[in-house]
Specification:
Layout lengths: L1 H6 L5 H11 L7 E4 L9 H16 L3 E6 L9 H14 L7 E3 L4 H13 L3 E4 L3 H8 L16 H12 L9 E4 L14 E5 L13 E3 L1 H11 L4 E5 L6 H11 L5 E5 L11 H9 L14 H7 L3 H11 L10 H15 L1 E3 L1 E2 L2 E6 L8 E6 L9 E6 L2 E5 L19 E4 L4 E9 L5 E9 L16 E2 L1 E3 L4 E8 L25 E9 L11 E4 L3 E5 L9 E7 L5 H7 L3
Parallel strand pairs: 1-2, 2-3, 8-9, 10-23, 12-18, 16-19, 21-25
Antiparallel strand pairs: 4-5, 5-6, 6-7, 11-22, 12-15, 13-14, 15-20, 16-17, 17-18, 21-22, 23-24, 24-25
The structure holds adenosine-5'-triphosphate and magnesium ion (MG).
C-alpha cells in the first residue's frame, strides 16, 4: 500500500489481490509477464495489457517477462516478433534479459505430459476431431467418454512417444487430459493437450510434429517462469480451473491468474484477424497505416508513448466488458502535445494574398513564440513579405453571420504580424478565386503597441517566397459507427469510413520546417498536431500526418468561430 501512496496511483482490484497475496505470504514478490501470440501487430488493447503488466511490476519492485506464445506453428512470423519487441520498447518498457518463447518449453512440456500419462491423468485418443467434438457435449448436455479413455499407461506412453517420433499423420491421434466428461465447465471435459501437425515452426523448425495446445502450454509456461500473477482477459476465467488442475497434478509452482476486461475502443476494432483482413485486402496501406489502432500506427501518426501510457492508466481496469470512447485517447494525446509541441504555421489549402501597400522586395523577420505553455522553448523568426498565403477556409466572399475572418472590405489580424484588409477579390475566367488584393496597416505590428485597433479574427499565414511545400494527410476515424465489429449480420468492412483519409498535396509550411525530420511533432497553429511521416517523408518531399485536431470535432471549431 505504501507503494500506492508514493506513486499516487489509485488502487484497483488487481492490486488488492496482490496486496493480499503479499500479506498472506503466498508470494514474496511480484513477477508478471506479457504473452503475445506473434500472429499480428500489437494494438492499443495490447498496450493496455503491457502497461498493466509492466506497470504492476514497476510499482511493486518486481519483474516482467516478455514471452511469445508461439505454440501454433503455421500462423506465426518473425516479422511480428520484431514488431512486437519494437512496440514494447517504444512504449518505454524493458523485459531486460527475460525474453522467452513458449517454444523454449517444448521439451519440458513433453516431460510434463509424460508425467500426467504415468499418473493416469492423460491418454491418447485416436478418435477423429468430429467424434471428439460430438462426444464433448454441450454446456447443458454432459459429454460422453471416449472409447480410448481407458487405455493402459503403457499403451499411452508408447503411442505418445510414437506421435512425437512422427509415426502418424496429422489428426490420427491426440493427447487428452483425463478430467471429467460431465463437468459443467466444458474446458474440463478431457481437453486436448497435443495434436499432430507436420508443420515447420519459426523457431524449432522441423524438430517437432506434435504441438501443445494453448491451454496446455500457457499455464505451464507461466509456472516454469515463476510468474506470480498471471493477468489475462476475461474469456480465460473459465479456463482457470483447468490451468489450476494442470499445475496441481504436476505439483509445480502455482501462479495466480487474475482476469480483467479487454479494452475496447469506439470507432475501431481490436481483432487481429480483422485487422489482418484490412491489411491484406488493401483497405489500409499496412499494419502501420496511421488509421489503424496498432501501436506502430499510433507511433507513425505522432502519438507519444506517454499519451498511451496515461490513457491506459486513466481508463483503469474493469471486471466487465465495456467500450471506451476514442475521445479519451485523443484527449490524452492532446494534453501531452499541448505541453511539448512547438507551434508553427502551415497553410493547408493555400489562397494567395498580395499586400498592395507593402514594399516590393522587403522582408521582415517577425518574432513568433514557440510554445506559450513552455517559455523555455523560446522564440523564432518568421519571414513576412508582400506576397503571402492564407488558408482558403479563412476567407469567405459572402461571410455568414458568425464568420469573423477575412472577407471583402473586412479586416483580420495576421498572427505575429499586421492587421490586413481585403480590398479586392481577383478571379479567373471560370469565377474561381485566384488571389486577394489587400492592404496592411503598418501601425498594427504585433507587439509594437502603436495602435489599439481591435479585430475579431486572427489567422495564420506563410510568406509565399519563403514557404516550403508539403503533403499533408488528414485522418478521420476508420469506421463510421461506434462499434463496427458488433453487428453480426453486417460485414465490419461495410462500416469503413470512405473519407478516413484526405491527402492535401499543395500545402505550404513556414521555412522553419524545411529541416523537419521523420517523427518530429508540431502544432500547426489553429489546425491541430502534426507529425512528419516516418516512411514517406524526405528532404525533398515533406509529408505530415495529422495526429489529432486541436479540439474534439470540427463542428466545435466552427461554432467557436475564430478567436
Ligand atoms: P488472439 O485472438 O489472437 O489470441 P489476442 O488479442 O488475445 O488475440 P494475444 O497476442 O494472445 O492476442 O494477446 C497478448 C496479451 O494481450 C494477452 O495477455 C491478452 O490478454 C492481452 N490483450 C489482447 N487484447 C487485449 C485487449 N483488447 N485489452 C486488453 N488486453 C488485451
Ligand atoms: Mg490470445
Amino acid at each position: 500500500m505504501s507503494e500506492d501512496i508514493e506513486n499516487n496511483k489509485p488502487s484497483n482490484f488487481i492490486k488488492e489481490i496482490i496486496d493480499e497475496d503479499l500479506k498472506e505470504k503466498r508470494y514474496t514478490h511480484v513477477h508478471t509477464r506479457f504473452p503475445p501470440e506473434p500472429n499480428g501487430y500489437l494494438h492499443i488493447g495490447h498496450a493496455k495489457s503491457i502497461c498493466l503488466n509492466f506497470g504492476l511490476a514497476e510499482e511493486y519492485g518486481g519483474k516482467t517477462n516478455l514471452r511469445f506464445d508461439d505454440t501454433n506453428p503455421t500462423k506465426e512470423d518473425v516479422e511480428y516478433v520484431e514488431s512486437i519487441k519494437e512496440d514494447i520498447k517504444w512504449l518505454g518498457f524493458d523485459w531486460e534479459d527475460r525474453l522467452f518463447f513458449a517454444s523454449d518449453y517444448f521439451d519440458t512440456l513433453y516431460e510434463y505430459a509424460v508425467k500426467l500419462i504415468k499418473k493416469g491423468k492423460a491418454y491418447v485418443d485416436s478418435s477423429s476431431y468430429e467424434q471428439i467434438k460430438e462426444e464433448r457435449g454441450a454446456p447443458t448436455k454432459p459429454g460422453v467418454e471416449s472409447k480410448y479413455r481407458n487405455r493402459t499407461v503403457e499403451e499411452n506412453l508408447d503411442l505418445f512417444e510414437r506421435m512425437k517420433n512422427g509415426e502418424f499423420g496429422d489428426g490420427e491421434h491426440v493427447l487428452r487430459a483425463k478430467i471429467d466428461m460431465t463437468s459443467p465447465n466444458m474446458n474440463l471435459r478431457d481437453p486436448i493437450m497435443y495434436r499432430i501437425r507436420h508443420a515447420e515452426h519459426h523457431r524449432t523448425g522441423k524438430e517437432w510434429c506434435i504441438y501443445p495446445m494453448y491451454d496446455w502450454a500457457h499455464g505451464q509456461s507461466d509456472s516454469i517462469e515463476g510468474i506470480t500473477h498471471s493477468i489475462c482477459t476475461l474469456e480465460f476465467e473459465n479456463h482457470r480451473p483447468l490451468y489450476d488442475w494442470f499445475v496441481e497434478e504436476l505439483e509445480i509452482h502455482h501462479p495466480r491468474q487474475i482476469e480483467f476486461a479487454r479494452l475496447n475502443l469506439s470507432y475501431t476494432i481490436m481483432s487481429k484477424r480483422k485487422l489482418l483482413q484490412l491489411v491484406e485486402e488493401g483497405h489500409v496501406s499496412g499494419w502501420d497505416d496511421p488509421r489503424m489502432p496498432t501501436i506502430s500506427a499510433f507511433r507513425r501518426r505522432g502519438y507519444t508513448p506517454e499519451s498511451i501510457r496515461n490513457f491506459s492508466d486513466e481508463v483503469g481496469i474493469a471486471k466487465r466488458d465495456n467500450v471506451i470512447d476514442i475521445f479519451r485517447l485523443e484527449y490524452s494525446i492532446r494534453q501531452d502535445l499541448n505541453k511539448r509541441s512547438m507551434r508553427v504555421m502551415g497553410v493547408l489549402n493555400p489562397l494567395k494574398v498580395e499586400l498592395l501597400n507593402y514594399p516590393e522586395g522587403q522582408v521582415e523577420e517577425l518574432d513568433a513564440i514557440n510554445n506559450p505553455e513552455d517559455e523555455s522553448m523560446g522564440k523564432r523568426k518568421v519571414p513576412f513579405s508582400r506576397e503571402l498565403y492564407i488558408d482558403a477556409h479563412d476567407f469567405q466572399e459572402n461571410p455568414h453571420k458568425k464568420f469573423f475572418r477575412l472577407s471583402p472590405g473586412r479586416e483580420v489580424r495576421l498572427r505575429y504580424a499586421y492587421i490586413i484588409k481585403c480590398e479586392e477579390v481577383i478571379k479567373d475566367a471560370d469565377g474561381n478565386i485566384e488571389k486577394l488584393l489587400c492592404t496592411y496597416d503598418i501601425e498594427t505590428k504585433s507587439g509594437s503597441g502603436k495602435s489599439d485597433k481591435k479585430v475579431k479574427g486572427t489567422i495564420h499565414w506563410v510568406s509565399a517566397q519563403h514557404a516550403v511545400n508539403a503533403e499533408v494527410r488528414l485522418y478521420d476515424r476508420l469506421f463510421n459507427v461506434p462499434n463496427p465489429g458488433d453487428d453480426k449480420d453486417v460485414d465490419f468492412k461495410d462500416h469503413i469510413n470512405p473519407n478516413s483519409l484526405e491527402v492535401l498535396t499543395h500545402s505550404l509550411v513556414e521555412p522553419y520546417l524545411k529541416n523537419a525530420k521523420p517523427g518530429d511533432r508540431f502544432q500547426f497553429e489553429r489546425l491541430g498536431y502534426f507529425c512528419v511521416d516516418s516512411k514517406d517523408s524526405s528532404e525533398d518531399h515533406l509529408v505530415f500526418n495529422r495526429t489529432v485536431t486541436l479540439r474534439d470535432s470540427w463542428a466545435k471549431i466552427e461554432k467557436r468561430g475564430n478567436k
